[in-house]
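Ticket #4471: structure output looks truncated?

Reporter: J.K.
Steps to reproduce: submitted the chain below (382 residues) through the standard prediction queue, then opened the result file.
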Amino acid sequence: MRVFLLFPLLIHGAALGEDLLDAGRQAMERGEYTQAERLFRQQIANTPHSAEALSNLGAVMAREEKFDEAVKAYQAALRANSKLTSVYFNLGVAYFRAGRYETALAPFETFLKSQPGEPRARELLAISLVESAQYKRGIAELDKLHAERPNNPTILFALAGAHIRIGDEERGRQLLQQLETMNLPAAAWHLLQGMLYYRLSLYEEAERELQAALRLDPMSAPTLAALGRLRLRVNDDSAAIDLLEKALAIQPQDAESNYQLGVLFSRTGQEDRGRQYLTRALEQRANYPDPMYFLAKIEMHQHRPAAAIKYLERASHLAPNQQNIRFLLARAYKESGQNERARAELTEFRRLQSKGLEHDRQAIDPERPLDPTQPVDAESEP
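Returned output as attached by the reporter:
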């Protein structure tokens, strides 16, 4: 994982406090993190509201990859002095490196209000947007950065990956061709190639590229997760679970891997365990309709339609054209005695299904009109 430099926080204080802070900073730069932590905590014991000591403690925790503790220290520093804009950047980095991309957005945005041109913050904000599934805005930010720094491989890599994830394979391929001329690590190259082949349904090629990436970087959580998705495709549940668990052991805040593992456990009869992972996915990405749908399925299976409705109403608001969400919501309404709402949802489900069939028919034979006398295939009515 890349090392992100943190902005130092320098505030003059009393002689003893300054000695402790200077000694702590020097220890941190030497890599003596235990000593640095001890000195900063000693200063905090003397002056509990020292924003500088709290911020530097956060930096030590971040360098030791103790991100939860780093976040707490940075938040305490901001409570002590909310005008310390550099701490917002450091807080965003801590969230980012912990894989909490959606949570990282606000501190990066706050920091950029005071320093709108800062390149690292703009880059991390853009990547956080993509990782939070806010693809349109994230790609727009990455496009701006790419225009300014066309030979920056990190930006180009992020932009290629974003286009591949939204299904724009052609643009992803173009960006990958540009990356060929740059000094990109081989593991990252194979990962992107594997992702592109997966999107193109070239699964054997995807497997080959992802396995190559894993050999070069066995601790790559994105590669392990991508291989897990390949196993899911062929219903090799045990292998998929193993790969996704390994990915989450490295990057526990990955919303998509938590979601996929939740689905796997749910469909193999381990609903309580599946619920835990699906709930974690929602904690990491609040506006994520897929885990809402599967949590609702668990609630329906356990005869709790009212609980299912809460998830499904949120999911249908976020993804109004998802037929499966509408159909399950109609069932939930019916089982909870809300027959009028059930009929309305079933009508909407049928409308969406007819629209989807018309779209498919137009793609196959644009000259042939839809036959309104033919029945629409559907699941049994709720």
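Triage note (M.O.): checked the attachment and the full token line is present. Residues 10-17, 365-382 have pLDDT under 50 and may be disordered.
Status: closed, working as intended.
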